[in-house]
Amino acid sequence: MEAYERIKKSIIEGDYAPGTRLTEENLAKELQISRTPIREAIKRLETERLISPLKRGVIVSEFNREDIWQIYNLRALLEGYAAAEAAVNRSAEDIEAMERCNEQFKDLLENPTYGRTEMLNEITELNNQFHSAVYNASHNEHLRFHITSVTVLPLVFRSFYWYNEYQLKKSLELHQTILCAIQANEPDRAKTAMQEHIYQGRDHVLKNINNES
Amino acid sequence: MEAYERIKKSIIEGDYAPGTRLTEENLAKELQISRTPIREAIKRLETERLISPLKRGVIVSEFNREDIWQIYNLRALLEGYAAAEAAVNRSAEDIEAMERCNEQFKDLLENPTYGRTEMLNEITELNNQFHSAVYNASHNEHLRFHITSVTVLPLVFRSFYWYNEYQLKKSLELHQTILCAIQANEPDRAKTAMQEHIYQGRDHVLKNINNES
DNA sequence: AGTTGATTTATTGTATACAAAGTGCTACGA
DNA sequence: TCGTAGCACTTTGTATACAATAAATCAACT
């Protein structure tokens, strides 16, 4: 794994908390490589806005409630559009991919064999996979780019860790609604269901996050 | 001006045509600096998708009709949303900034003192300024980021160079409609007017561009 | 002639030394 | 005690040498 991916992973997994100062030299020492690839990784993470310039150097980006509001609303706009486009452009394989995600999601909810943390990691992964399957089904590379770009940021909130069983079930249901609408070539229904799903996520994060960030 | 800006400018102004191969060493020689800042600029332009990796190295990105379609539709989605948000969040200064752009635009159309090329450069600049004024008025940093990101790409088409006097007048009128709607706190009207404006730009580019790219 | 393998060449990847510049600290003066 | 100027230190910016590797060329064999 290259430097960029390693640092990104550390940020998303919370090893480098928001506000943490990152210097090239420290990272170089930590990852046991020279400053050159570190520089590259930092520049890239900066354009993705996972880190922000501060004085001489950078810090892991911090997001306040206003940021969360704006980011989730943008997600709703873009992923809602993607769902609508998917309802028009989806292939049979796209449908299958989405079905697989939802089936695994369902299995996991019905047979909670792991510990809670492992299960929520799995859920997070499956949720991401479903969303990917939807925007991939839109067959729109530019749209895909913007969605992935706006979606990395909420990852740092690790929102699924606050979900209870009822909320997870509600998520699955909306996934299924979205899938049905896409399968039935109903762009507008797909869009509204997706937006509803994301707005629920937004409100959930806003309700649970510490008031200041 | 740093390396990144110089290369970006060269791409947007067409000095490096789409498909042109760019190598670190050539750029370093051309800009009279070492490869290090060139590397950085290339990486950044790559994440902005102005250049694309190809074999060992990169080329200036090429866009086909499908790309143009997708990019302009995304612009309509994002800038339409920005216009609606601006209608809710705009301050008095935001309104003034938009008014200034449109007044200058109008002056320019009524008093075409320059040569055609200089005038169209000026028009392009004023058009960009108006659009910036609108999304700045939305007071949404994340939205701003995505709009600027999706908007750099159409710049390489230099679409205004194909506009005739009537079309420029129509552009100005829509700008004024957008401004009125934002001033009157009519988010939906602002959105539809902005979308209409961008769709007209899209169709204009698609009509005039060489069929293959 | 076409295909495969080895050799050469072009180009990027990495490390490191040094230059430049911003930050903060300390000491001095008001 | 507060402010400020100068200095030291931390950190990034740049250049350059060398390593790694992908691509292209060419030759040999089928």
Brief description of this entry?
The structure is a homodimer of 213-residue chains. By secondary structure, the first copy, chain A, is mainly alpha-helical.
Q: Would you mind describing this structure in some detail?
A:
- The structure is a homodimer of 213-residue chains.
- The first copy, chain A, is mainly α and 213 residues long.
- Chain A has 2 domains: 3-60, Winged helix-like DNA-binding domain superfamily/Winged helix DNA-binding domain (Arc Repressor Mutant, subunit A, Orthogonal Bundle), CATH 1.10.10; 65-208, Up-down Bundle (Four Helix Bundle (Hemerythrin (Met), subunit A)).
- In chain A, 72% of the residues lie in helices and 4% in strands.
- Chain A has helices at residues 3-12, 24-31, 35-47, 65-89, 92-110, 116-137, 141-155, 165-183, 187-208; strands at residues 21-22, 51-53, 58-60.
- Chain A has a 3-stranded antiparallel sheet with strand order 1-3-2.
- In chain A, α1 crosses α3, α4 packs antiparallel against α7 (141-155) and α4 (65-89) runs antiparallel to α9 (187-208).
- The two termini of chain A are 30 Å apart.
- The first copy, chain A, binds a DNA duplex (30 and 30 nucleotides) through residues 23-25, 33-37, 39-40, 55-57.
- Chains A, B: Residues 1-63 form the HTH gntR-type domain.
- Chains A, B: It holds the Pfam family GntR.
- Chains A, B: This is DNA-binding transcriptional regulator, GntR family.
- Chains A, B: It comes from Halobacillus aidingensis.
